[in-house]
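So, read this over?
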Amino acid sequence: MNLGIRHFQEIKKMNFGKNKQDELDQSKKFPPHCYTTPSNVSHPLLYLLKTGLENKFILLHISFHLKSVIPKAESKSFFPERNIFCQSRYCQKLQATSTSSDKLSTSSVATFLDEPVNVPTIEASDSTFSDGSDLHEGKYFNTKKDLKKKLSDIAMKGSFEFRTRKSNRSLWVIQCIDPNCSWRLRASKIVPESTKFVIRKYVGVHSCSLLNRNANHRQATYVVIGEQVAPQYVGVEKGPGPKGVQTFARIELGAQISYYKAWRGRKHAHTLIRGSPEQSFHVLPSYFHMLEKLNPGTITRIEVDGESRFKYLFLAFGVAIRGFRYMRKVVGIDGTFLKGQYRGVLLVATAQDGNGQCYPLAWGIVDSENEDAWSWFLTQLKEIIGDTDELALISDRAPSIKKAISTVFEKAHHGACAWHVAQNIKNKFKCADIMGSYWSAVNAYRCEDFTGYMIKISNRYPRVAEYLENEVGFEKWSRCHYPGLRYNITTTNMVESLNSMLVNARDFPYVALLDVIQEKMSKWWNDRRIVATAITTPLTPSRESELRPRFAQSNGRHTSQLNPITYHVKGGELEGVVDIFNKTCTCKEFDIDKLPCVHAVAAAHHAQVSVYSLVSPYYTKEYYLLAYGETIYPVGSQSQWDVPNEVVTRIVLPREVKEKKRGRPKTSRFPSVGEFRKRKNRCGKCGAYGHYKKKCNSQTGSTEGNPPTNVPG
């Protein structure tokens, strides 16, 4: 008959044998499982005590009182020297000792009240297993949360689950999910006033079967998953996606989790590393204060509405403001949408250094690209770059930008991005075959050449020529008709490059996004400063590579002097008259780019003048080094900030957002007008993109390296 004995609470060694092998052999005689006794035995418990204690002990966990099992009369015959106390409702420990190695002579039944039983640790046998942890009685944890996290990690790595039996502010009692298992833990506060928890009782050996293993681990909550995977997001912008988190949980934690739980775990990991969006608004004033303190000259602005809700922010590092004096006065401006909880638009203003690289000047976050937002941003920008005839502002043709520029900047010249104009042409007139003539007209230095290209466009598509002349205006997109000086910058590619750089950080909270911007700029300034100090030529590397071929081409030109400063250069497809004092040439290339053309190089060689003296100082090594001579410093961890109380107490609340739509949040924008995203083909053999199965060169069915995991957009 089944005795009803659930399992062994614990196994205690007493005196098995003379050596460890004897002890091991003796311990295997009574494995911890339910016992069955003959049907003719009236009291199975006494039967086991009399016949089954050759190994000197047995610890039984029974679900009834010992008084109701052992009659008083019969217990005397079995235990002449008995001492029985049956006051506990949960467990009784029956322990027998003898004077010989094969016969039971004395016994006692030790009782335990409702307090935790002080029992030694069970040692694993063939039918039990340890949880493999380093936990022990008396181990301390700073908080109950730390203890829970530790136990969840142990449970997932040990492939078992536990349930909470009792939990409050000062106590936590758990046991294995199998009620017949011996694994359990009890922890409580050291003192009621403390937050520290200590393990009071702990049995770390399991006696449950594999049938209780569950792939959907109950301890694998999204919080635990997020805490485990969080280190993989430190120092990186993207990190593993939801599927990567699923793989991590399966391999590292042995838990099968759903895609949704992986997505929530990833989101929780982002919050642990980068902070919550709501917290970002709260610390924004303090963050800006530290930026200004550590980077002198930095300008920050925060605009809120009447309810102290966030509207706009503006950031310009002092290093970039001072370095702008060594840049060509051409600034590209554009905006890109943010993908975080509170959305918004990131506005950027950037120049281009003498080596053709982006030089970010200012950053802003606004609610949307409207006239009010652009006017506010450009007003802040005007304070750091001024408003002169020399300044050129390049952007797309969005009405809000056009109106804001005309309102804020009275002297600067506004130019349109030639690439956006081209997309509008293709979308409106479906005439991609004239794009070659269009781009030749854009890059033409002389008005005569420009007119020739426009005649070709007009002959084929008269409406396109009329659109470019009247609706857009030649002075907006054509280099030769531009009233100011835009050098060789005809598009806003320098701004688009910055937007692409932040593609993975655009769903960060605002402060975390600004941290990424600061980190990128700090790295750029340091790397480019190293490059500048290593330059051995008078010009930057990119301008030196442009000038050298022109020097070789000038060798075959015939040069004659017209006056002390003017030279006539013949040869090649085009003649040129060069003024080496005013730095001009009739080919207009020298005038617009401020870099000597072939004619100017030949004239300088004839006049025995250094060709480098004709180059704009913006292209020189000296200016390049001065632009990156300073350092952009990070703000460090929040615990190290020294912020005045009036800044800390400033209230900046999150902006109100529209009600969240159902379904997956949108993270990609709609293509711009005329912008087409071509989807690359995926090979059915190797899984790589860019070719078909028939053209696959893979012999084994897999490509070398790591194939892309996301389909290109």
